[in-house]
Design goal:
By secondary structure, the chain is an alpha/beta fold. The protein contains 12 helices and 22 strands. It is found in: Lysosome membrane; Secreted.
Length: 454
């Protein structure tokens, strides 16, 4: 039979390779083991101002939502190349952003504030900037996720200053939505709040209260967007996974309230960790986070089966990433492996922190010239939504992932060599050759990934 296979092969040569290993790779094309969204690849843009610093490094420059150069041709062309790219506007200070709509007339700028959330004061999204952002996204074909301030109407608990209590006040958000609709601006999804779940980071909201708040958001979205075919999705909670909090939240939302259950991942640790480069190339370390992905997926399946798990933000190393590692080629070992791992574990979307900004941008902070991890565009173009099971009995330093090809019949395989001393001679085996009875049946069905494929 004809064989059509796309191979993405990543290898980093830090040392001389001294040995070779023959590996037989079995791609099981009988059935898919998971389904991703057609636009699985996603990137974020944050609110951080230029004076956001970590460890004496201030890597954000003019990449914040309020000051990003939307006329930059390199930035424009990078986004257009994905055709389309899903972008999430949000981040740590999302829950202290007010919008210059409705009764919100004053529009304050970012200011350092002792005792403020993440050290900054409340800041405003000007109406003019909202217009500029949408004009830019319309020209570049972006599928927009917009994170809403979930703390309006709430106040700090007397007993616990990290805990915010009270009902969400949606008035300012409703004014923004109504204006957005009146201008014909497209929103793919609204997400409520940033990192307010479980233990929280700068602030925390109780799981039952958050379920109540996001239910209110769903009612508002349904009311303002009566045409279900054009209605934005509702996402949440957009924070770090805690089993007890997540299960309580999911138990307290009715069917249809949330479309995507978003969680954040920074499994490499702090950006100043001197062992970061070794973690990135250690398959045993990288595999540890799989338990989180499995647990999230299982919770969603058990409590909200109508929804799907999303990685709403993932930057590898937290606190703006590593200035020596996160923007380099070696970071691709972590990034590509997580794309493969999360898709295998039934996550629909994966949002990389960031498109530009911090040390972990897909694009350079000042020039917008692509960093090596822009190779995610190959995933976007080649990997289809149907995820296939891949197995081999070789070294764990060889990672392998496979999907039905995105365009046309075929299978696309991603191979990652994490060893600095071994090359792998890989031969592909179609499981139809292992199971002739299944082969006959699937040939009649023209195969999962199309006719005449591996």
């Amino acid at each position: 039979m004809d064989v059509k296979v796309s191979l993405c092969y990543l290898v980093l040569l830090l040392f001389s390779l001294s040995s070779a290993e023959d590996v037989k790779l079995v791609v099981k094309g009988v059935t898919s083991i998971a389904i991703t969204d057609n636009n699985f690849i996603c990137a974020t843009l944050d609110w951080w101002p230029a004076n956001k610093c970590n460890y004496g490094d201030c890597p954000w420059g003019q990449t914040g939502i309020l000051n990003l150069d939307l006329n930059n041709k390199i930035l424009t062309n990078a986004i257009k190349a994905f055709n389309p790219l899903r972008i999430r506007l949000g981040g740590s200070v999302e829950d202290q952003i007010v919008y210059q709509f409705g009764k919100q007339k004053k529009c304050p700028h970012f200011k350092k504030k002792e005792g403020g959330l993440f050290g900054f004061s409340t800041v405003c999204l000007p109406k003019k900037r909202w217009d500029e952002v949408h004009d830019f996204f319309n020209k570049t074909g972006v599928k927009l996720i917009f994170g809403l301030n979930a703390l309006t109407g709430k106040k700090n608990s007397v007993e616990d200053k990290l805990n915010w209590v009270g009902n969400w006040n949606p008035k300012n958000a409703i004014s923004l939505m109504k204006y957005t609709i009146s201008k014909g601006y497209k929103i793919d999804s609204y997400e409520l709040g940033n990192e307010l779940c479980a233990e929280g980071i700068g602030a925390r909201v109780d799981s039952v209260q958050y379920a109540k708040d996001i239910t209110r958001l769903r009612h508002i979205v349904n009311l303002l967007y009566p045409d279900a075919s054009r209605r934005p999705k509702v996402l949440g909670p957009g924070g770090f996974y805690g089993k007890e909090w997540f299960q309580s939240f999911l138990l307290n939302v009715a069917p249809g309230v949330v479309d995507g259950v978003t969680h954040h991942i920074y499994n490499l640790g702090a950006g100043v960790d001197k062992d970061l480069i070794n973690k990135i190339q250690d398959p045993y370390y990288l595999s540890q986070v799989a338990e989180t992905f499995k647990s999230v997926a299982q919770a969603v399946k058990e409590f909200t089966p109508w929804a799907a798990p999303w990685v709403g933000e993932a930057g590898g190393a937290y606190n703006s990433g590593s200035k020596d590692v996160s923007h380099t080629f070696v970071n691709g070992f972590w990034y590509l492996d997580q794309l493969g791992m999360t898709s295998t574990l039934n996550h629909k979307v994966y949002c990389r922190q960031t498109l530009a900004g911090g040390n972990y941008g897909l694009l350079n902070t000042t020039t917008f010239i692509p960093n090596p991890d822009i190779m995610a565009i190959l995933w976007h173009r080649l990997m289809g939504s149907k995820v296939l099971l891949v197995s081999h009995e070789g070294s764990p330093f060889l990672r392998a992932y496979a999907h039905c090809s995105k365009k046309g019949p075929g299978v696309t395989v991603l191979l990652i060599n994490m060893s600095n001393s071994t090359t792998f001679n890989v031969s592909l085996v179609d499981d139809m050759n292992l199971y002739p009875i299944l082969k006959t049946r699937l040939e009649e069905d023209k195969r999962l990934c199309g006719k005449n494929t591996i």
